[in-house]
Known about the structure:
This protein is mainly β. The chain is built from two helices and 32 strands.
Amino acid sequence: MKVANRCLMTCIAFAAAVTMLCLPKGADSVQKSGKRHKGKKVHHAQAYTPIGTKKVRVLSKTDVQLPKNISLIEPYRLTFYATDFTVTVFSRSFARGEAVLCEVAPSAEAQSSLSVKIAFEGQEVPLVKKTWGYAGIFPIPPDSTNMWMNINAIVQCDTYKEEYHFPLKIKDVQFPEYKRALKLGEYSDADLFEKKPWLKEKIEMEKAKKNKIFAQSSPYRLFPRLSHPRDYHKITSSFYARRLYERYEIVNGKKIIRNSLASPHLGLDLWGPVGAPVFAMADGIVVLAEEMFYEGNQVIVDHGGGIFSRYMHLSKILVRKGDIVNAGRLIGHVGASGMVTGPHLHVGLLIRGVYVDPMSLLCLPLR
């Protein structure tokens, strides 16, 4: 067995920041108005002038469609050298909650005879064969507490089989925290189910359908083209923000605090008025396009290798289950369907059961 001390590890760090999407001055100053509706505050985004999109290229490899009010910077790159191959990984920041691209390139001598398997922290990374080697994507879990994690490579050639361990330093992230009041009797599931007993069965059926979809693992459909899901970039709720709900009820005119409930935000909320465009982030096949209780009108795209993107609360769905879509394809319009208080797009990126920041996908140099 060969371990990391036999291998040279080099780090080629491009000029990168913790976030790759940079807003220009004033990009967050989008005006909104609100009014009361059915006991809760509903925000209505004012009309806006579309600013359009642009195309940029990541490391001369991947074309990315972006709104014109953001810029894209190059990812970090780490290269590990072994006897007959190299392992190169790319990431926006190698931090918790990030997607990582892994490339394995055999030497010219071993190109025809070398086979390789990659695992990250014991979880196999599905690889796709390329003319130059292999490629795959893996997630860094947002809830991980480890400062170092291992990339394991098992290689087999005509004359030997060996295993390598490459240490990857993980950057810590202080995810934001939001505190919100939650009045029991209005928004709690228990109260909803008491008033609408049929609703519990509906939600359970929807949960089972999603679990079945996310358990699938189809061949990679990713090509060197990606897209931001909107034509305007403004984050209204960050990925993995910790939402602390202070639950209370009114008893005899007094506010009684009950036990609090903490929940991480497993996606990214992007601003947009009703009817604004929503684009597929990457190539794939639509595996769900329908209304669900919590998500409202939702589209789920399977990108292969256990990678899925989700688009929720749409006002209109423009694709059907089974449709093949390319990055940048218009798949729906921003809306306020489902359990929301105002129009926005919730976009999620799931990699083999682990949610990561969807924006971390956009700087990966697919080829």
